[in-house]
Amino acid sequence: MKANLFKRMRTRWIPALAAAAALSLVGVGITAPAAEAAGNINPDTPSSLTINKYDGPQGPRGDGTKIDDTSGLGTPLRGVEFTIRKVLTANGEDVNLDTEAGWNAIDGVVVADVLDGTGFTFGPEIKVLTGADGTVTQDLDHGLYVVEETDPGPNNIVSPAQPFLVTLPLPQSGGKWLYDVNVYPKNQTNKTTPTKEVADPSKLVLGADVTWTITAPVPDKAGDDTYRSFTITDSLDPRLTCKTIAVDGFTEGTDYTATCNGQTANIEFTSTGLGKLQAGQNVVMKVTTTVNSIGDNGVIENEATVTTNGSKVTTNKPSTNWGPLELLKYADNDKSATLGGARFEVYDSKDGQPIAELTTDENGNASITLWVGNNDVRAKDYFLKEIQAPAGYTLPADPWTGPISVSANGENTPTTIDISNKQKDRGELPFTGANGQLMLTILGIALLLLAIGAAVVRYTRARKA
């Protein structure tokens, strides 16, 4: 595909512009100089190629001469690798540029032809690396060379230099020759800074959804380059799982494909979507995740990586912060007498609505994990309202407890609250002591009256008899 692109850009090489000076010579054809010009090449004059590597937009083509004032060229790029290969033969003809036949053998040749390899043979690869000043000089024999940028090194390059052809010596105007050639292939690096923001959760309790918004500026590219790839990858924290992905202004399936599965949240632009990208445009991706746990640390950070044409930049690391709250319910200030069945409502404001409910277990314990803030905010106040006391115990006159500061302290140490209940009053029991003696006295009097009554009845019956 690269070869076809180069062939579509085929032109004839004008000798005065025959160096890849400010631009790589993609598709620029070589024209053989006049026979008398080839005749004044000095085969004994040594030749060299100096590659000057800078970051920035492309300028006009150079002529192979050295630029003394480099202040306007951009930032030098160190550590860029170039691979140089000498073309030995073209369609069976020796490429000896000290002869007219050698120049005729490469007449009209473009870089796409050479990269295709058909009909050409090459010498061994020579790899060079730019220094701290962005330059590297390689002594080379006379000949035709194809030069390719093969490794950007530590530089975050969006648009590398295109492969180019250069002859040593290089034709100049007036039948002159340049034996020490300087080229200035430019690179476009990625200078964008994507950002990431986190929204408040859909609920304040564990299991809620949290949405992360990634804003990725589209970086500049070279004028002869295209956006060949654009992806945003959000490798989620294990405590999160991906729920949905959306990209503002673009259509899934047409402009991009999305992968939302477990801890993977990724979008990749299609050729259709890439064609819509413009330098400086913001691509806004929204990833909705579910918070499943807080692990050993309630501070859940997350970052994303944006890749354009192989260049990578990362976002900041926002965080959603969660903290545990634990409750102990016990009787009459005796913590060993724990109570189950106490019910509480959880509020983030006394004036609001309950956000959750807790019920103590048989050991008097209840716990909940609550959202406490984003980024640097790692504590939040909550309130508990007791709505049902354990069986046999009374609700307190004031059922509210709080404010309770719940925090994500980085160690998953819970905030603990202890709440006691009083037993209900017992019912009225029978009198004891003196009251018991009184009952016996009353019983004795009753028995005495019965005896008297029986005696009266017997006496009356006896008289009648």
Percentage of residues in strands = 35-45%
Helix content: 10-25%
**Rg, Cα atoms, Å:** 44 Å
Low-confidence stretches: 1-28
Mean pLDDT: 88
- Beginning-to-end CA distance, first to last residue: 147 Å
Largest sheet, strands/sense/barrel: 6 strands, antiparallel
Number of helices: 6
Question: What is the 3D shape?
Answer: rod-shaped
Count all strands and give the number: 34
Structural class: mainly beta
Explained architecture:
With 465 residues, the protein is mainly beta. It has 6 helices and 34 strands. It has helices at residues 2-8, 35-38, 100-105, 111-116, 271-274, 434-464, and strands spanning 47-52, 54-55, 75-76, 81-90, 93-94, 120-122, 126-129, 135-140, 143-151, 157-159, 164-168, 170-171, 177-178, 180-183, 186-189, 195-198, 209-217, 230-235, 240-247, 256-261, 264-269, 282-291, 299-301, 305-308, 311-314, 319-331, 334-338, 343-347, 356-359, 365-374, 379-388, 393-394, 400-407, 415-423. The strands form 8 sheets. Strands 4, 5, 6, 7, 9 and 11 form a 6-stranded antiparallel beta sheet that branches. Strands 23, 26, 27, 30, 32 and 34 form a 6-stranded mixed beta sheet that branches. It has a 5-stranded antiparallel beta sheet with strand order 20-21-18-24-25. It is rod-shaped and about 180 Å long.
